[in-house]
Amino acid sequence: MGTFDLVLDPSIRNWVLLPIVYIMVLVGVGRSMAQQLMVSDNTSDIEIVKHRQLLMRSQRLRANGGFLTPRSFRMRKKYFNYKKDGKLRAKSSRR
Fold first, then answer.
1. Cα gap 48→40, rounded to integer Å
2. Three-class secondary structure assignment of 44-59
3. Is the pLDDT of residue 6 over 80?
4. Does the model's pTM come out above 0.70?
5. Which residue among 7, 74, 78, 80 sits deepest, i.e. has the most Cβ atoms within 10 Å of its Cβ?
6. Torsion sign across C-alpha atoms 39, 41, 42, 43
7. 7-49 confidence digits (pLDDT tens)
8. Residue 95: is its pLDDT beyond 50?
């Protein structure tokens, strides 16, 4: 058993391997450019997101309040709408 040297014909190298390498480089560059285009520049303000989630929670309470006991419903309602420190009565700097 001798050693076998892999001899590559220059025409195969020029017409097969180099185009494959070229295409793979272009695909990699294309993917990175596509990822950069897909990245969202729209960053949500945390206060706006918190306020929207609070409104959604209060809407769910209003819609599904009939499934709660009266005491539980009053507790949750007080959490959202208490005159002194209710979450929906708090003054927000973003309004």
1. 17
2. CCHHHHHHHHHHHHHH
3. no
4. no
5. 80
6. positive
7. 778 787 788 888 999 999 999 999 999 998 888 766 678 888 8
8. no
Asked whether the beta carbons of 9 and 16 are under 8 A apart, the reply is no
CA distance 36 to 39: 5
Residues 6+ apart with CB under 8 A from 68: 76
- How confident is the model over 41-67, as a mean pLDDT? 87
What is the rounded CA–CA span in Å between residue 43 and residue 75?
A: 34
d(CA 28, CA 32): 6
- The amino acid occupying position 51 is H
Name the one residue in this structure whose structure tokens are 């309602």: 77
